[in-house]
Amino acid sequence: DVLIQGCTFSANVRQGISVTRGQNIRIIGNSFLNTSGTAPGAGIDVEGDNASVSLKDVLIAGNYFEGNYYGVAVSSYSYRTTINGNNFTSNRLTSILCTSGTDCVIDGNVFYSAPSTDGGAMIDVNAFSGIKITDNTLIGTYDTNDRDGVRVQAGCSDVEITGNRVKNTFT
Questions:
Q1: Residue in 89, 114, 98 with CA at minimum distance from that of residue 158
Q2: How far apart are CA 123 and CA 88, in angstroms?
């Protein structure tokens, strides 16, 4: 069991936090600001080391993300990640990226977008199995360089999108 709470992660080069193995990891009430440089440049990167290492039951709740390349990136070898009640403001590419993982809930978050020529989406899902995107608020600026609200790409299965409010996105 791991608890990370009440911290500020600012101006980091690769990630604010890398979560690569463990179970019952709780990241609650922190700020992740201006992470950039070496890819992926995420406030939080949830990515298991390999298939033989356990990474499951990660809770990301009540955090603030601003100015990161990605707010949260959830990817390979991750199982049962919950992203709940966070505030995402002006992350440069995507606020939440889910790719090549299993079982993720994105619920009750608030997203404020800023125009970007990098493309991206506020929530971007690609090749992910078992994802629920519910009761989020996504607010864009209706600029021609604004991001998509929710983007679901190829290779996804068992996707549920319900009860979200999407306003002023360009697409």
A1: 98
A2: 11
> Is the pLDDT confidence value at 146 over 90?
no
151 has pLDDT over 60? yes
pLDDT digits (tens, 9 = 90+) for 34-85: 998 888 899 999 999 887 777 999 999 999 999 999 999 999 889 999 999 9
Write the CB contacts of 40 (distance below 8 Å, at least 6 apart in sequence). Answer: 14, 15, 69, 70, 73, 97
Distances (CA, A) of 27 to 43, 68, 80: 11, 17, 14
CB atoms within 10 A of CB 167: 10
Rounded to whole angstroms, the Cα distance separating 54 from 155 reads 23
Q: Which residues contact 33 (CB under 8 A, 6 or more apart)?
A: 8, 9, 10, 11, 43, 65, 66, 67, 68
